[in-house]
Amino acid sequence: MNKYQGRADKICQKLALPLIPVIKAKLKRRTLGTYNPAGIEICTYAGFDTVLHELAHHLEYTKFFRRIPGYFKVEKCPQMEECSDRPGWYAATGPLHDVYYLPDRSHGKVFKKCLREIEEISAQII
Question: CATH number for the 2-67+103-125 domain, one of 3.30.450.20, 3.30.230.10, 3.50.50.60, 3.30.2010.10?
Answer without folding.
Answer: 3.30.2010.10
